[in-house]
Amino acid sequence: MWLAVLGMGRMGHAVAERLHHGGHDVIVWNRTPHKADDLLAKGVREAATPRAAAEEAEATFTSLADDAAVHSVVTGEDGVAAGLGDGVFVDLSTVSPQTTADLAQAVAGRMLASPILGAPAAVESGQAAYLIGGPRELYDRLQPGYEALADEGRRRYLGEDAAMATALKLISNYLLMSGIATLAEAVATAQAVGFPDDLVRDYFGQVPLVAPALHNRLDRIISGDHHGWFSTTLGGKDLRLAEDLARSHGVQLPLADAVKRRYEEAAAEGWADADITAVVELVRKK
After folding, report:
1. Which has the least CB within 10 A, 57, 97, 179, 285?
2. Do 117 and 201 lie in a common domain?
3. What is the pLDDT along the chain (286 residues), one digit of tens a residue?
4. Domain boundary residue among 126, 160, 194?
C-alpha cells in the first residue's frame, strides 16, 4: 500500500520505519526539514505538504504533539483534508475526543483514531499496542498496514465512534502518569532512607505492586538520567485532557489534578523537554 506518515518526531519516525520495513511504499512529511533523512536514504519519499502526501497515499497517518498541531495539519489550506480524496485519514496522536470528532467531520467520516500504547522502540519492534476507533470498513481496508505495525492481538478495535479510542488512550495515560509520579516518590524515599540503588532497582523491578508498564522507566528514576521521548510537557497536557474528559461526563478527578500540577511544575523548573521520569527531581530538590 501507499501510506503517508506526517510528523517525524520519534513516534512518527518509528511508524514510518515500521511500515516501510513491512513492505509498504511510504511517504513522509515534517514541518521542519531533515527529520527523515535516514528514511529517505532507504527509499522512503518526502512530500512538500500534508495535502501532497495525502493525494498520493491510500491512507495518511498523523503523529503530532497536540490538538492544535493536528488541526493545523489536517484542516489547513494545504492540509490532509484538502488532498485526501477517497483515502483514509488515521490519527495516531493523543488528543481530546472533541478534536477527534472535529477531524472526522473535516474528512467526511473517512477517519480512524488509532492512538498508540508504547514507546517508539516498541513500535519499531512490533510490540506496541493500538487502540482503533472508526468505521469498520476503513479498518478492514487498512489491514495490510496494521498487520505491518502489530499482530492482531496488539490491536483493539473499539467500534464505529473514533472518539472512543481517543478517550481510552487518555484514561490509559492517566494511569501511566500517576504511576510514574508515585513510583518516583517511592524510589526517592527509599534512596533518602539509605537503601542502595541496586537493592532499590531489584526490589521495585520485581515487586508486583509496581505495574509492568513502569519497569522500563525505573532505571531513569533511580539514576536521574531523564533522556527520553515522552516529555513532562506532554505528560501535563495528557493529564489536562483526561481531566477535561472526566469533567465533561460529570466526574471530578482530584488525584489527576494533583499529578498534573507535578508535571507542570517539573516542566516549569527546567525539565520541560525531559522524560516524564524527571518528576522525581521535584522530590529530590525539596
Report:
1. 285
2. no
3. 999 999 999 999 999 999 999 999 999 999 998 999 999 999 999 999 999 999 999 999 999 999 999 999 999 999 999 999 999 999 999 999 999 999 999 999 999 999 999 999 999 999 999 999 999 999 999 999 999 999 999 999 999 999 999 999 999 999 999 999 999 999 999 999 999 999 999 999 999 999 999 999 999 999 999 998 899 999 999 999 999 999 999 999 999 999 999 999 999 999 999 999 999 999 998 6
4. 160
Q: 233 is in which domain, residue-wise? A: 167-285
CATH number of domain containing 60: 3.40.50.720
Report which of 104, 50, 55 is spatially closest to residue 78, judged by C-alpha positions: 50
**Is residue 50 a contact partner of residue 79, using CB atoms and an 8 Å limit?**
yes
> Do 116 and 6 lie in a common domain?
yes
C-alpha cell at 35: 527529520
**Which three cell numbers, joined as nine digits, stand for 284?**
529530590
Distance from C-alpha of 129 to C-alpha of 259, rounded to nearest angstrom: 25
